[in-house]
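Let's sit down with a protein and look at its sequence and fold side by side. Please make up or recall a protein chain and show it to me in full. Label the sequence line and the structure token line clearly, so we can match residues to local backbone shapes. Go ahead whenever you are ready, and we will take it from there.
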Amino acid sequence: MALPCWVLLRGLTREQRHWGDFGQRLADHLQARVLCPDLPGNGQLYRRQSPLHLSDLVEHLRLELRLLHAHAPLRLLGLSMGAMVATEWGLHYPQEIASLVLINGSLGDLSPPWQRLRPGALPCIARALLLDTAGREALIYRLSCRRHADTTLAQWLSYAREYPVSRSNVLRQFRAASCYRSGGRLPAAKALILCSRNDALVNPACSAAIANHWRAPLGIHPSAGHDLPHDDPDWVLAQIARW
């Protein structure tokens, strides 16, 4: 019998290595196959142009996973923009998706712009576009994580230098995420919504709005930052196992 297949989807400018050992831990915890594909413009696909529409990202992923012999129904876990991609996939191809776990996500038709991106984070993001690689990664790390480690920042810097995300792709991804609307539709797959109370980028009210509209369970971490799987992977795994 084939193992259930989980697909982990990251956010703006992030790649599969930013998951750290979370994917392997999830695989061990749930006895599952776990895939962490890069999105066009990020990671190994950094030379590709990022699509302006999340629906195009979904089509890319569907093709990519067919090549990896990942068969439906899939279980999707999306962080930030990855949560929007997971939502789009679940809405357009419900027969392919068994479940959705959305972490610190937001939907433009359920939350206002100032909740989807906290006003205090906008100047930091604008400044990040002007910084060199080291400065940009340090700023992103401080914004997205509450649990800091010099070794992790050094790893992130090495990823950015090996696979640099172009400024044009940063802007294209930001536009795709900020313009995304779900149309108020509900996914057929069961869903779990997780968020962080101390998220410096996205107001947790966005996750609450999704959970309320979808009538899905909501888990709120009391102290983690935006990158919840980085800050407290054990808590995320426990929430999924309990669900």
Q: What stands out?
A: The first helix runs from residue 22 to 30. The chain has a mean pLDDT of 96. Strands lie at 5-9, 33-35, 74-79, 97-103, 190-196, 218-221.
